[in-house]
Specification:
By secondary structure, this protein is mainly beta. The protein has one helix spanning 2-21, and strands at 32-40, 48-57, 63-72, 90-93, 101-109, 114-123, 128-130, 134-137. Residues 1-19 form the signal peptide.
Length: 139
């Protein structure tokens, strides 16, 4: 019985030590973005597109840059990728700061009928957060 009591005491002490050493660390909350549908520039410029996004949450890490990244097919000559990234595709950079709410920027003149795009943010630690990918196509 004495041996069982020592074993239980030892196991209890090990469990207490493990529970004290496994404290949760707060993981910084990151920005949350929602990609919104593109629309034509109200100034009626030919082939002018407005990119829009919603900053749902700003998070705890500062944002260095944010906007929309896109892949478009220009008259069938440009490579089109369904997953645009900041490393390989074109960007429309929005003005800082990245505060919560609706944001829009006029993009370049894109005479295309096929474009994949999504919101993005580059954080101070150089990590990249993306919104959902949207696809605009006119046949």
């Amino acid at each position: 019985m004495k041996k069982l009591s020592r074993s239980l005491t030892t196991m209890l002490m090990v469990l207490v030590a493990l529970s004290l050493s496994c404290t949760d660390h707060d993981i910084p909350e990151k920005i949350a973005l929602k990609t919104l549908p593109i629309f034509s520039n109200p100034n009626q410029l030919k082939c002018s597109i407005v990119f829009a996004l919603d900053v749902v949450r700003t998070g705890e890490l500062p944002v260095k840059e944010y906007g929309a990244v896109y892949s478009a097919n220009f008259d069938g000559h440009s490579p089109l990728t369904p997953t645009p990234t900041i490393e390989t595709n074109l960007k429309v950079v929005f003005d800082l700061p990245a505060s919560t709410g609706y944001k829009e920027e006029i993009g370049p003149q894109l005479c295309t009928n096929n474009i994949y795009y999504r919101a993005y943010a580059i954080l101070i630690d150089d990590s990249v957060i993306y919104g959902d990918i949207l696809h605009f196509r006119v046949d």
